[in-house]
């Protein structure tokens, strides 16, 4: 599980600060490391570190991250260890192009792809499956960004919600199954891509819509292009987004997380009633299911366990 954030705004030089705030809102999706890459007038700015967002970025760093396009990432390691070399966004330079990759998900054919690439001479700097995406993007024969992205993504299997940066072009993509969430927002004429709507709320941006499963969007100089190049697959959303990963005030997959958790609690009470004195949640994600269970069972809701958020 990770959190991704991207922003494209020619007339908004505060892309670094807005990305910082977006990552701050998505902190629950990854507490191991954080990074931001900014493209600014044919040059790139990159800052990253291990730890929480507010530990990695101070005011001096945030002020330095002005530009046109930014991509950010908070990491919870699933593939590859929790070490500095695995911090995202992963940034490479290829034929004078700056390419940054921020990935949420798991690639099920990562080992096969990596073995094949290494046999052909590719050198990997990290142990992340996400680095495979950069190798695909830089090794394909196509020259246009749209063709390179589609050609690369067609080789991937598994779950991915991606925010990519090609110089001043911002790209967002979801796998054909729609495992992980990714939404589109707008702040004035500035487009935003992020894992959850809570990131839009913090920067007072407008939620536009979810990026659809199998959809790829290209954002450049205030214009958005959408394509759906993948064969249709059966929808398969990650249920743990609703149960555990997502923040309760977010809307993902078209539904509010708090209301889904509360409804699950009510359904549990209907399917598995118990003879008890009260309902006690295990914080934090269990809080809202417990509310639904207690209401449906006509039982009191009591607090018997408190989580310390600062240890």
Automatic annotation (TrEMBL):
Pathway linked to the protein: Purine metabolism
Superkingdom: Bacteria
EC number: 2.4.2.14
Pfam families: GATase_7
Residue span, Glutamine amidotransferase type-2 domain: 2-222
Keywords associated with the record: Glutamine amidotransferase, Glycosyltransferase, Transferase
Record-linked InterPro entries: GATase_2_dom (IPR017932), Ntn_hydrolases_N (IPR029055), PRTase-like (IPR029057), PurF (IPR005854), PurF_N (IPR035584)
Entry's Gene Ontology molecular function annotations: amidophosphoribosyltransferase activity
Entries under PANTHER family matching the protein: AMIDOPHOSPHORIBOSYLTRANSFERASE (PTHR11907)
Protein's name in the database: Amidophosphoribosyltransferase
Organism of this sequence: Aerophobetes bacterium
């Amino acid at each position: 599980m990770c959190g991704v954030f991207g922003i494209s705004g020619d007339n908004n030089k505060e892309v670094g600060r807005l990305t910082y705030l977006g990552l701050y809102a998505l902190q629950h999706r990854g507490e191991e490391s954080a990074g931001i890459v900014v493209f600014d007038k044919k040059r790139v700015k990159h800052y990253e570190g291990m730890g929480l967002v507010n530990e990695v970025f101070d005011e001096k760093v945030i002020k330095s991250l002005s530009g046109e396009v930014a991509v950010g990432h908070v990491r919870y390691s699933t593939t590859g260890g929790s070490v500095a070399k695995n911090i995202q966004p992963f940034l490479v330079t290829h034929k004078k192009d700056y390419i940054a990759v921020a990935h949420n998900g798991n690639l099920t054919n990562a080992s096969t792809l990596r073995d094949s690439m290494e046999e052909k001479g590719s050198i990997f700097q990290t142990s992340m499956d996400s680095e495979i995406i950069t190798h695909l993007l830089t090794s394909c024969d196509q020259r246009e960004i749209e063709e390179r992205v589609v050609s690369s993504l067609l080789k991937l299997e598994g779950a991915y919600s991606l925010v990519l940066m090609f110089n001043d072009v911002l790209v967002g993509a979801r796998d054909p199954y729609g495992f992980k969430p990714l939404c589109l927002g707008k702040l004035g004429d500035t487009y935003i891509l992020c894992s959850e709507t809570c990131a839009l709320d913090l920067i007072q941006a407008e939620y536009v819509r979810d990026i659809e499963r199998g959809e790829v969007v290209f954002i450049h100089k205030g214009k958005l292009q959408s394509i759906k190049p993948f064969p249709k697959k059966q929808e398969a959303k990650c249920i743990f987004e609703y149960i555990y990963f997502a923040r309760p005030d977010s809307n993902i997959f078209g539904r509010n997380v708090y209301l889904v958790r509360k409804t699950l609690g009510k359904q549990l009470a209907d399917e598995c009633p118990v003879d008890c004195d009260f309902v006690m949640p295990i914080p934090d994600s269990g809080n809202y299911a417990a509310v639904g269970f207690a209401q449906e069972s006509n039982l009191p809701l009591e607090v018997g366990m408190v989580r310390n958020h600062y240890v």
